[in-house]
Task: structure prediction
Amino acid sequence: MTTNELLRRYVTDRSETAFAELVSQHLDLVYSAALRQVNGDAAAAQDVAQAVFTDLARKAPSLMWHASITGWLYTSTRYLAANHRRTEQRRRTHEQEANAMNQLLQSAQPDPAWLELRPLLDDAMHELSPADREAVLLRYFERLPLAQVGVRLGLNENAARKRVERALEKLHTILAKRGVTSTVAALAVLMVERAVAAAPPELAREISAAAVAAAASGTALGWAMLKLAAFLTPKTLIAASAAALIVGMTLAPKLLPTGMGSGSTAARVSARAGIPTPAQSNATEPARAQIAAFPAPATNVNGMILHIVADDTGTPVAGATIECTDGVPPARGGGRGDGFLLRPKELVLTATDQGTAEIPLSRGPNEVLIVNGRAEGFADLRLVWNPKRGIEIPHEYTMRLSHAVCISGQVVNEQGQPVAGAKVTVENRAAPFQSGTQSPGIHGPTWGETVSDANGFWQINRFAKTNIGVLNVWATHPGYATNDQEPRGYVSLGVALEVVNQLLTGTFVYKLDRGITVQGIVVDQEGQPVTNASVQIVSDMRSCATNLSAGTFVLNACKLGMCEIIVRAQGFAPLKLEKKLTNNQAALFLALKRAKPLKLHLMDTNKMPVAHALVRVGDDTGIARFEQVSDANGNLIWDSPPQQTLYIDVEALGYTHQQGVSIEANGEEQPITLHAARAIRGSVRDAASRLAVSSFRVRACA
Result:
């Protein structure tokens, strides 16, 4: 019997036998994952497994529409295990630990490869996309043959094989960056043999009984809704559930014991804002991501209701500034991440006294939503919903702001004197955390900027304490050279943690030096001055530049040592060279060569011009930067390309993506042929009811 059928029997018939079978099918996976993540504590792993299946019993109506719940169980295990590590400290003897570890995690002969992989596997798995993670779980954790993997993923056997192989390669790459030396084949064998171990014999029966009892402890109204859910489509289910919620809110005060009714102000506020009360503070992370189960009425039915609350107390944050940007990313992303959108629409909102904001949306295909939240005394937070990455935009969401800590310091010169007016930049190097299809990519603030005062002091109050260890801080000033100081407190980056304490206590000192002055002239091949050129001296991530007058240039406050010099001018090929700058630096003589323009003509297979195609051009040196849209005749010209092999990417609506096409600028028109994209047509129906599904997402993998 399939997962869907077992869940449906449990919801409609309250069949404990069906739920017990469901637990039996998936317990080894959940228990083994929990055991790895609670450091081999068998008792704690059993508690985590119990909580996961109890959560499954409560959420069965919404999950029975899923073709597979393997990924959901695996992700829930991760959250609950993390919550257990934070909140539970169990007493256990050394003998109990050794017994659990020896019985369940080790063979008679310890395997060094497994000991290396075991503590890293689950974190690495959650860096995969949901689709890739599901493929690995089904094939190597549940040990299904490829034909069955294909059925669970809606693919044929050959496509399932390709999906699994690609996912395994990605997992191997992630683990290799963390120092795991196993080959791809060895990794597959290790996961098949060791990733899932047998749970204790009696655990399945105990968990099934406890989970069913916990779920059944709800009201009769709740079970009526569970039975109704089995016969409704997801869209109808939402409307019915909303009606039941209203009835439940009406009856709840009469059913609650004395002292728990409407007299509790905190309970009323929490219920209205979709916030857990203190008694609910131990809820799992997946539950926190879905606090508001049913959207409140909105002016724009396509919009999103955003609740802004304090992360520690759950109280609403009134007056928070919410900056919203929505748009469509390029077809292939352009390597720019979620932040680069085509035709972006921007909006700034202010949260109400109840800490809510209504975000209007069009919800077009592949629409990406970026929300930045900022409030006095709280750290900035940036949320990104990207359907192309499996993260759908919800109708309601709770943004949890952490309290900010003040980081500060002083900018001084080489003599230790304060430098006023220096621009201090703080960059957050933390990678986004993505927890699956129900949660957005969560970022701290990307950066913060301020200016040092008359005594060189500065402070920024926009980062949470958890971000401090992954910050870069630097200062710039027109009269001083840049500096290489980049304080980080993240141990894995190999930098001392005392820098973090300096930032938190205001004792961090950033030194600037005067640097040197670099001057010279830019000429063409005949020795004639080139005017209106740009000379840039690049040092790490920062640069200083100036325009030319009569071919000469002067750059102040340049840093000593090796640097890159880049020169660009209209009609000339860009020049890039490395130079060591010294205290007695001689004038630079920089000669440019005339460029042969790059002329492209974009056309389809019928020789008809393709207008409005986006063309990006790059080269191996990194100095080529060109991006332009073809005109109505399919033409475009770049008059200052490097005189070497170039690589172009072309995107046009209705045509396949051309990527990495090599070409050289020779001054002559060169044709680029685009092929029409193939249309994929079909329909989606509910497997049980055979009714058409009106809203869904299709991802085509080549």
